[in-house]
Amino acid sequence: MQMIVTSVADIWTKPSTESERDSQVIFGESVELLENLGTFSKVKSVDGVIGYVKTALLGEWSERHYKLSHQVRSEKLSFPFGSYVSKRDVSVFKLPKRYLRPIEETFIPVNLTRRFVGIPYLWGGTSDFGFDCSGYTQRLFRFSGTEIPRNSDQQSKASETVPDFESALPGDLVFFEGHVAFHQGKGRIIHANGHYSRVTETDLFDSSPYSKELLEIMEKIGRFKLKE
Q1: H-type helices in the chain, by residue range?
Q2: How many domains does the chain have?
Q3: Any idea which residues carry the catalytic annotation?
C-alpha cells in the first residue's frame, strides 16, 4: 500500500501526462501499487480506478489521524479539503487545529455543498482545486464518512431510486446523461459543470434554456444511505 504525499496526484489513463486524466487522489489517500514503471507507477485507488500516477508522488503508507475540513495552504504544501493527515503532518506543516476532524467523524454531505460554489470545473478532478461532477459528489460523501462510486453512471446504479421531485430530499443526487448533481430541495441543484466551468447552483424549473436542456437528459433521482 502506498500513499499520496503531494497536494493532488492525477491518475492518467496511460503512463504519460499527454493521456487523459481519469481521476485524482489527494494527500494522505492510499493506493494499491500494481507496477512500478520508473517515472510512472500503475496503481489502483480505493474506489477501483486503475491508472498511472507519477512515482515521485507516492510514499510509504503511514497511519492517518485526521481529515481536513478546509483547504489549508502551508509554507511547504497546499492541502485540499478532505486531505488525510497524521499527527506528524500537523506538526511539520503547522496545520491549524481548528480544521482537524477525526477521520471517523460523520457529516451530512449536502450541508457542505454551498461552500464550494465557484470552484473551477476540472475533468477528472476530485479536489477543491478543481472538481468534475462526480468527483464533487464523491469527495463530499467521502469526507462525510460514506463511500460512493467514482463515476456518475456507477453512482446512479448504486443508489436507491427516488420516484420524483416531490419525494426527493436535500442531499439526494440527480442524475442526467453523463452528469450528476446534489439536490438542494424543490428542484434546485448544485453541481460541478462544464456549462459554466465551475460549481454552480441551478433551478431546474426556472424555464431557462440550460435548465430545460438538463431536464431533457435527466435520468434518475438517487439516494444513498449515510453512514451514522
Answers
A1: 87-92, 133-144, 152-158, 209-216
A2: 3
A3: 133, 179, 191
